[in-house]
Amino acid sequence: MIPHKLTLCLLFILFLQITGFAQKKPPSGGRLAVVVDERLAALRATPQLSGKLVRRLSRGRLVAIRSFKTGADGITFVLVNVTRRTHGWIQRESLASPSRSGDDRRLLTLIQRSNGFDRIARARIFLDHFPRSPLRPEVLLLLGDTAESLAGKLSLDAARRLKADLSDAPEFSYYLNYTGLDRYNRQRVIFVFDKSTKRFHYDGTAWRELIRRYPKTSQATEAKKRLGPLYSQVRMK
Asked: What's the sign of the alpha-carbon dihedral 110, 39, 128, 89?
């Protein structure tokens, strides 16, 4: 039999995993960086594009930078720790580091060149990992504008998929439970639903943060325009 205290410990760990409170520690052994371009995030055994693949790293994965090496083809590889036991070489452009000068600008450029959900996800990485960057107002405005621009397509997709599948529950509840919203929700991008037009709209969180934290910027002026008549009702926290 499993001892009572051990049973309680196992149950507590399971609770943490289910509720999302258990988080993996960032890797140690070097300067912290985050994967921002998963297309280039092949972890290799040697600093070469032909090097043996160790694994692919997902967007948002944290790594610890140990050293750099540039090959004859001009590609710079970074030796990184992924976990205590996993390390390898990864192309420099796949990463951004909050402690490296200019990486916030490089990530902003990548965000601007991205589209749709990719832009949302990379903007979220920026906001989560570059808290002191002077470029945050631009990213907040981009995040809000992109979310609202995607609301129309989400509305059409939801209407098409839900048209023949409604039962006794309120119609708006089907829309707000639409599976297409899930990945945005995980990026903390929330949509509201207008029952009269049957259309999603971005809830404006990024615009409100922009106005609250950076009120004197030109981006804050634009954010007020986006919120329109709702701006007068915004509570500054």
From this structure: negative
Q: How far is it, in rounded angstroms, from Cα 8 to Cα 22?
A: 16
Rounded Cα gap, residues 43 and 52, in angstroms = 9
- Residues 43, 41: Cα–Cα separation, whole Å: 6
C-alpha gyration radius of the chain: 22
Question: Are 87 and 113 found together in one domain?
Answer: no
Which domain, by its residues, includes 50?
31-96
Largest CA distance in the chain: 66
Domain count along the chain: 2
- C-alpha separations of 95 from 31, 39, 98, 126, 184 in Å: 12, 11, 10, 12, 22
Q: How many CB atoms lie within 10 A of CB 80?
A: 27
What are the pLDDT digits (tens) for 108-139?
999 999 999 999 999 999 999 999 999 999 99
